[in-house]
User: Fold this.
Amino acid sequence: MTITEAPQATRRLTTSKAMVEAIAQEMERDPSVFYLGEDVGAYGGIFSSTTGLLERFGPQRIIDTPISETAFIGLGIGAAVEGMRPIVEVMFTDFMGVCLDQIYNHMAKIHFESGGNVKVPMVLTMAAGGGYSDGAQHSQCLWGTFAHLPGMKVVVPSTPADAKGLMTSAIRDDNPVVYIFHKGVMGLPWMVKNPRSIDEVPDGEHTVPIGEARVAREGSDVTVVTLSLSVHHALDVAESLAPQGIDVEVVDLRSLVPLDRDAIVASVAKTGRLVVVDEDYLSFGVSAEVVASVTDRDPTLLRVPPQRIAVPDVPIPYAHDLEHAVLPRHDRIERAVRTAMGR
Amino acid sequence: MTQTLDREPAADVRHRLDLLREMVRIRLFEERCVELYSAAKIRGFLHVAIGEEAVAVGVNAVLDEGDAVVSTYREHGHAIARGMSMDSVMAEMYGKATGCSRGRGGSMHLFDVGRRFYGGNAIVAGGLPLAIGLALADKMRMRPTVTVCFFGDGAFAEGEFHECVNLAALWRLPVLFACENNLYAMGTAIARAQAETDLALRAASYGIAAWPVDGMDVVAVEEAADRAVDRIRAGGGPCFLELRTYRFRAHSMYDPERYRDKAEVARWRERDPIDLLTHQLTAEGGLSAEARDAMAAEVTAEVDRAVAAAEAAPLEPAEDLERFVYTETEA
Assistant:
């Protein structure tokens, strides 16, 4: 039997609207889906992650909580164990410090330590990233920390369409999925304007498989493997270098767990040059893991040493100039690409 | 004469014999675990609840099949009282494939979805958030069920406890907070850790019904749990019971017990919950010496069978190590 699908209609949406649309569609489809967090109701989410949902679904399914992250994450775990599909929002990744026990000792381990008997189909969503002078406790990415701890999937969308598709997939997944959105990709009117934060999004049902990277731009000279807001920066750099004869391929990881190592290796096999761009801390993190994905498989694929552009191992500073010095922005990405190219 | 829950006298005796048998099952199971630990058949840390059996049995006695239980790392008794078979629990102690958690959990992580027994949580106060979530799910689905959360007095020192009781009270979640106050958080006496040691009083400050119970008297525990569960089922919101009990043995297996007097342990042993009920039933003529011996023999045989089954059971193959980190059936 052949099923011919009509091409899906699209419209241009911001990432935040795309994310909200996915949540709303899944809440319509499945009564066990509900949303829980701080100021997700009347406020609509500080980063517009739930705008309009309270009006549509009411306070029984869009639930404001006290500032008790440990209690309400665990509450989500308990509800998920009972077959509900909660989406639990921690306002900032930085706040993981007050509730990490529930995340990595309970959410991520119950399935394993129960010998596969107990399932935890929940989404833990949170905002990440800096660039707007919010200081050391409100600007971190920390996705590498979640990815390091076994038992949870980790997705990090960069585009409106992927934000929708990955949210849908995360809600439907029977595993705990940590869904991290960078504030800079949401298309928020009060943030630095980012033209790539508004784009075509399929109408209706849209899923993106967890664990599949996406080639955001094809190129033949050098591979930039990156994620989240840094994808946008890498695309900007690629476009600016194209007229100078440097053809950059940009791989958007989209998921950290599972990591699409095949896609990384395939791109490097083509270009022979690797630049990893990550807004998380440099050491012991995503950037080293990406390099190891290549060297574990075949170190001879690399014609030149790989370059890693990440946040040096310092807390994120407040002052604009200092903050921009630590973030992986255009200038640093371009320098790394040029170093890899020997130009 | 203590009569439980308005039963007819004969039924009451039968019922209390059942309670006694459950306590004896837990006691003999755990005493065997201690022996097996010394023989290196059981590994890791082993936390037995010998002396605290009345709490597990009295609370579980009032639960329905659909109710949920969340427990701590000292949970063998809760699991057995909840109806988990000695076979599945003992096999888990052995780390065998037939264990309730397929050897991945061990003594501190017993689970049984069918009985809604959700661990086996080895972080102090770590089970409380899970419990209020189970209760929220039940409430959202309008099920008339109750979630019982067992935890120790040590949990009062964790912020997690206060967050969860507040939230449960705020949203009137159907949870019974069953605090096993055995006076020690590991080796730290309660007065050395808590500025106010009246735990029921502190729980009541969240606006919930809370009261202390003699945790060595299984009938008193059952009556209190029954009252609390009725109230919760009727939509009265969460309740808190401070079940005053005592563990007769070390915190874990190797513990020199330098933190408490031998005389204190001896005093509490005089209130052994199994002895108390045995004497009471014997005095009433409801339990003969022969019946008592027969009960012990039957339970011993049940433990023997569980040990034999665990000995014979296969190990989970190491090649399957990565199974159950993530689910195998994708949604």
Notes: The mean pLDDT of chain A is 96. Chain A touches chain B at residues 34, 60, 65-66, 68, 70-84, 86, 101-102, 105-106, 110-119, 121, 150-151, 153, 172-175 (CB under 8 Å). The longest strand of chain A covers residues 85-92. Residues 219 and 243 of chain A are 13 Å apart (CA to CA).
